[in-house]
Each structure stands twice: as structure tokens, then as C-alpha cells.
Design brief:
Number of helices of chain B: 11
Membrane topology (chain B): Multi-pass membrane protein
Oligomer: heterodimer
Keywords (chain B): Cell membrane, Membrane, Transmembrane, Transmembrane helix, Transport
Subcellular location (chain B): Cell membrane
Shape of chain B: globular
Number of domains of chain B: 1
Distance between the termini of chain B: 38 Å
Radius of gyration of chain B: 23 Å
Number of domains of chain A: 2
Helix content of chain B: over 70%
Number of strands of chain A: 21
CATH class of the largest domain in chain A: Alpha Beta
Largest sheet of chain A: 6 strands, mixed
Order of helices and strands of chain A: EEEHEEEHHHEHEHEEHHEEEEEEEEEEE
Protein name (chain B): ABC-type spermidine/putrescine transport system permease subunit II
Structural class of chain B: mainly alpha
Pfam family, one (chain B): BPD_transp_1
CATH architecture of chain B: Orthogonal Bundle
Largest sheet of chain B: none
CATH topology of chain B: MetI-like fold
Shape of chain A: elongated
Chain lengths: 391, 264
């Protein structure tokens, strides 16, 4: 291939169109923020998919919309793409109001769940489709395809036919087809959900590295809370068209805003609160001390925060006032890096079940039938509001 | 068990069906090469009936009319039918019950009803405006009306078999409405449009009833010529025409089959 002249060099694959500086691929991108105000979507017939959503996505952020199917996350993503119109509210990308801009005029590209590769085109023409529609000359398009193929390490895939590709390969072609257009924002609609577990975690890492390298704003949709936590800078948890919580993965996981979020993040050990006096709450497993000043209807104690010792052993932190209860081991699930115990607790007539996840440090494991002492730090007793519906 | 006997029986049945379907055609084809002027006995091989056909101006012009009518009507039917098929697809979420029935109706309606209705309609138009006197134009319109439903259904089923997200992907990748038509919808539909064209073509060549009621004195097609000629008795010349028609229809069918296979 002919040596590229210095003047051609700035045409790197990921240089922002508006940027005038000829920096290396990936370095010079100016990411765009997204602002949604009062976005509402109501379908004819009265079905409300989104209920007045306010959301600010920061420039360069890996932002995830997380929720069960039918929560409105895909509708929200389609609105960002321009494929669905909001019934009310405004949407701006990079500070520009695009509420009424049709999809083909938005600098936004999508990786679809089904990948949506055109069956009548070769892989190469699929990747170059967006550039062709924008009127880029053939020679320039081909150069760009070569660059993106190198960037995403597509190798010889570009010379195959679409029907010769596996799921994982299609996913990467779909990503290349979107990224080659150098959009202000990349949207990803459950792009990994059709893949098997091993490939999925490999592509998660690849996708994350690509995003960090480009510094591009990614909006990702998934129903898988683990995937959301691994990938995201921030997560918005949606249910019934309402944003339940926005926060970093750590915030959402450790301090769920309400019972819905806690359940959706996979938390067990939820105990309804019958009364509260100061920092003491009454629950089915007895009175618990908490450090959470929020009012709540439900107490959450994450399984990995429980401390298990033998009945006669000294407290794990003698200087501190811990919640202590006696339980019996009902079931044990050995998972290698950790061990899950199902415990039963008897408080008068009240019978409850607790789950403890103990990291496997090589110490002696408890057996089914053993009596154990459970200690819970007051700061690990978290108050949840019960403002969810259904679920 | 009886399985083998059953399979043998099926095979026999299969061959009997084929013979039942194709033996008459075979007879016509064989006797078109008969040297003597009868279909009752074989008098040696000859191409004289084909020679006579080629020298018969009425037959040549009938072949010309048939092909012209088939090509023009198929092109128009493919364009209009594709638009209907696309419309049906785009609005498939709505209740299309009555519309679908209206599209299907010409397929199940007896040709003779359509033929008579077309004739009556054209006569009225002609009486009122002087336009559409019986001839090629009325035949084209009549043929297009019975070809359209087939085209619409072929195009519609092609769209239904397509991942609907592709339409979104085209929009998302900066294609304007015209670009979507040119770079996505038409290329995706190409195999379906070709099959639809070939089917329309065969239907048109095949048609006698509707052509008969809408033809003018100067626009007789091959089937109409045959019908006229046959009243004077079945001559080997008719066998020769029939053989040519069988060959050309078979050719079109094979070509469209190959197109379909390449798509699959």
C-alpha cells in the first residue's frame, strides 16, 4: 500500500469531524453530553412507556440503562437514536436540541440487539454503509474500513459474507459499522445478550476498552445487572417507565434507593420493619441496630456483610456493638471463591431465612445442622423505601 | 413391517401422478413432429408444422402480442404490486382484515367473472369518453389487475421474512428516505421482484379467458388464436404452437427457480 502523505494522516478513523487538530486516532475526540428533560412516551391506546424522564449523561461516560423487559429502557434508547419520537419533553445531544431531528440527520449510531447487518451487502459494504450515505468517496471509504478493521482487529472478517459470520463476529461488525461513522454518541441495545457466557465476558472487556480508548459517550442498554456493574461509569435503573435510581455501580449496588432496585440488583435478606425507635428497628429476625437515618419500610442486609462464627467464639470486633443472632445452617452451597449458607432463624413463633455469603479463606466450613452465631454491623442494616409497584 | 410396502406404494403413486400430469403434454409434443395431418397415428418425423407456423403471419403476430402484453403488464404489475406489498407491510400492525381480503379476492375470483366485468367496464368507459376501445391497452389493464395480487403477496412475504430492525439500521446509518429506497429496500427486494415478474409473465401468457373478453380485433394473443383455430379441428400446427408455449413457460419457470435458489 502506498505511503500516506502527512496531509492525509489526520483522517484517522476516530478523529472527530469538527476537530481541526490532526492528532492520533482516538486522542482528539470531543465527547458529547446528553440531556433529557421531561421525556414522556405514550403510545396510542394509553400505554405509557416513559413517565417524564429527566436524565443527564456526561460527555465520555459509559452510561447504562438497566431494567427488566418492558421498563422503557429500549424506548429511551430509540429516542436518542431518533427512531421513536417523545410525546413530550426535550432531548439535546452535545448541547444541541435534537428533539425533532430525524434519525438520519443525528450524529448518533446504534449497535442493535439483532445486529441488523444488511443481508444484501458484503461485510465490507455493511461497514461502509453509513459513510456511503453521507456521500464519502469510495477510495476514502475503503481507507476508513481498513483503519477500523485494524482498530477492532477484524482481520479477514471483512472479506466474508454476512451469512458466514458467527454471532460474536456479527456483533463486532455491527460495532465497526457504527464506530466508523465517528458519532457523537454510540448507542448499544443489549449487544451481548445473544452470545454465550464466555464470549460475552470477553466482548464486555473489549467493548469497555474500546470506549475508554475513544473517550466516546456510550449509552448501553441491558437487563443484566452484573453486566451493567462491570461496564458502567454510571447506571440508571428503570422500572415502569420511571427512573428508580441513578448512580455509580457501587452506589446502586450498595445503597439501592428502594426495594425494586434492591431486588433487581439481586439482593436477598430483605426484612419488613414493623416499628422503629431511634436507631433500633423491629424486624422478623428481632430488633436490629442501624446507622441509616432514612425512614424505611424494609431492612436490607446484603449476604456478603454477614459475619459467621461458632456460638462460643468471641465477637469479630469486640469493641463494637454488633447485632447478634443465633441461626442454624439449613443448606450450604460451595462456590469455590465463596460459600453460600442458607440459615434459619427462630424468634419466638417467627421463623425467618437468612442468606450469608462468606468468602472462602480456607477456614473450616460450617456443616448443615450446625448452630452458628451471626453478627451484623449496624452500618450494614440499610433502610429501603417500599415505593415500588408490583414486582 | 409394512413400512417397505408402504414406501413402494408411495413411489408408484408418485409416478402415476407425474404421468397423469405430463402424459397429455407429451402426446401434444410428440405429435407436433408428426409428418401426417392427424393426431391419430404416427407417420414419421417432420418439422413441416413448425415451418408452416413460421410462415403464418397471423400466428407470428399473435406471438408478438402475447409477449408484448406479458412484458408490459408484468412490468406495470410489479411496480404497482410492490407498492401495495410495501404498504401492507408498513401498516401490518393495523387491522388489515378487509384490505387483505380485497387483495386476495382477484386470486380466487373465477376468471370469467373478471373477464366479463372488465369488458363491461371498458365498454362503458369507451361509450362515455371514446377511450379504451378494445385492444392491447384494455388487455394490459385487465392483465395487470389479476397480476397485482400475486406481486403484492410475494413482496409482502419477503418483507415479513426480513428483520424489521434493518429499516431502523438504515435510518440510523444516515440514509435519507430516497437513499433507503435505493440502497436498502430495492436491493433487498430484488429477488422477490424478479420472481414476481416471472410469475406475472407466466400468468399473462397462460391467460385465455380474460384476454378473450378484453381483446380487440387486432390484438389476438396466442391462446385466442388457438381457440379460434381449434374450432376447425385439432391440427398438428396447433400441437406445434402448444409445444412452443410449453417450452417457453418451462424455460421461464426454470429461470425463476434458479433465481430463488441463488437467493436461498
Amino acid at each position: 500500500m502506498a505511503e500516506r502523505s502527512p496531509t492525509a494522516a489526520p483522517d484517522g478513523p476516530f478523529q472527530h469531524r469538527d476537530s481541526t487538530q490532526g492528532a492520533n486516532a482516538g486522542a482528539a475526540r470531543e465527547a458529547s453530553s446528553i440531556n433529557l428533560k421531561g421525556i414522556r412516551k405514550e403510545y396510542p391506546g394509553g400505554v405509557v412507556a416513559l413517565e417524564s424522564v429527566d436524565l443527564d449523561i456526561r460527555a465520555g461516560e459509559f452510561f447504562t440503562l438497566l431494567g427488566p423487559s418492558g421498563c422503557g429502557k429500549t424506548t429511551l434508547l430509540r429516542m436518542l437514536a431518533g427512531l421513536d419520537e417523545p410525546s413530550a419533553g426535550t432531548l439535546s445531544i452535545g448541547g444541541v436540541d435534537v428533539t425533532d431531528t430525524p434519525p438520519h440527520k443525528r450524529s448518533v449510531n446504534t449497535v442493535f440487539q439483532s445486529y441488523a447487518l444488511f443481508p444484501h451487502l458484503s461485510v465490507r459494504d455493511n461497514i461502509a454503509f453509513g459513510l456511503k450515505m453521507r456521500g464519502m468517496a469510495r477510495s476514502e471509504r475503503e481507507q476508513k474500513v481498513v483503519e477500523i478493521a485494524e482498530f477492532i482487529k477484524l482481520g479477514s472478517l471483512v472479506d466474508r459474507r454476512v451469512d458466514q459470520l458467527s454471532g460474536g463476529q456479527r456483533q463486532r461488525i455491527a460495532l465497526a459499522r457504527a464506530l466508523i461513522c465517528e458519532p457523537d454518541v454510540l448507542l448499544l441495545d443489549e449487544p451481548l445478550s445473544a452470545l454465550d457466557a464466555g464470549l460475552r465476558s470477553q466482548l464486555q472487556v473489549e467493548l469497555l476498552r474500546t470506549q475508554k480508548r475513544l473517550g466516546m459517550t456510550f449509552v448501553f442498554v441491558t437487563h443484566d445487572q452484573e453486566e451493567a456493574m462491570v461496564m458502567s461509569d454510571r447506571i440508571a435503573v428503570l422500572s415502569d417507565g420511571i427512573i428508580q435510581q441513578i448512580g455509580t455501580p457501587q452506589e446502586v449496588y450498595e445503597r439501592p434507593a428502594n426495594l425494586f432496585v434492591a431486588r433487581f440488583m439481586g439482593h436477598d435478606n430483605l426484612f419488613s420493619i414493623s416499628a422503629r425507635e431511634g436507631m433500633t428497628v423491629q424486624t422478623p429476625i428481632g430488633a436490629l441496630e442501624t446507622e441509616d437515618h432514612n425512614e424505611g419500610k424494609v431492612a436490607l442486609i446484603r449476604p456478603e456483610t454477614l459475619e459467621l462464627t461458632s456460638p462460643g467464639a468471641p465477637s469479630v470486633e469486640p469493641g463494637k456493638q454488633l447485632n447478634t443472632l443465633m441461626c442454624r445452617v439449613v443448606e450450604r452451597f460451595y462456590r469455590g471463591s465463596n460459600v453460600e449458607y442458607r440459615l434459619s432463624h427462630q424468634s419466638g413463633e417467627q421463623h425467618s431465612e437468612l442468606i450469608a455469603e462468606i468468602s472462602n479463606t480456607g477456614e473450616r466450613l460450617f456443616r448443615v445442622g450446625d448452630e452458628v452465631k451471626v453478627e451484623i454491623y449496624p452500618e450494614d442494616v440499610i433502610m429501603l423505601s417500599d415505593d415500588e409497584e408490583g414486582a | 413391517m409394512q413400512n417397505r410396502g408402504f414406501k413402494k406404494g408411495l413411489a408408484v403413486f408418485w409416478w402415476l401422478t407425474l404421468i397423469f400430469l405430463y402424459a397429455p403434454l407429451l402426446v401434444v409434443m410428440v405429435f407436433s413432429f408428426n409428418a401426417i395431418n392427424t393426431s391419430a397415428r404416427w407417420g414419421g418425423f417432420s418439422l413441416r408444422w413448425y415451418e408452416r407456423l413460421l410462415n403464418n403471419d397471423v400466428v407470428i403476430s399473435a406471438i408478438g402480442h402475447t409477449l408484448l402484453l406479458a412484458v408490459i403488464s408484468s412490468i406495470i404489475a410489479v411496480i404497482l404490486g410492490a407498492m401495495i406489498g410495501y404498504g401492507l407491510y408498513r401498516h401490518r400492525a393495523r387491522r388489515l382484515g378487509l384490505l387483505i381480503v380485497l387483495i386476495y379476492l382477484p386470486i380466487v375470483m373465477p376468471d370469467i367473472v373478471f373477464g366479463i366485468a372488465d369488458m363491461a367496464f371498458f365498454v362503458q368507459i369507451n361509450r362515455l369518453t371514446g377511450l379504451l376501445s378494445p385492444g392491447l391497452s384494455t388487455m394490459v389493464i385487465a392483465h395487470v389487475t389479476f397480476q397485482i395480487p400475486f406481486v403484492a403477496l410475494i413482496v409482502y412475504s419477503r418483507f415479513v421474512g426480513l428483520d424489521a430492525t434493518l429499516f431502523d439500521a438504515a435510518k440510523d446509518l444516515y440514509a435519507s428516505p430516497w437513499q433507503r429506497m435505493l440502497h436498502f429496500i430495492l436491493p433487498t427486494l430484488k429477488p422477490a421482484l424478479l420472481s414476481a415478474f416471472f410469475l406475472s409473465f407466466t400468468l399473462s401468457v397462460d391467460d385465455f379467458v380474460i384476454s378473450f373478453f378484453t381483446a380487440g380485433p387486432e390484438s389476438a394473443t396466442l391462446p385466442i388464436y388457438i381457440w379460434g383455430a381449434i374450432r376447425r379441428g385439432i391440427s398438428p400446427e396447433i400441437n406445434a404452437i402448444a409445444t412452443l408455449m410449453i417450452a417457453s413457460v418451462a424455460l421461464v419457470a426454470v429461470v425463476s427457480l434458479l433465481f430463488n435458489r441463488r437467493r436461498a
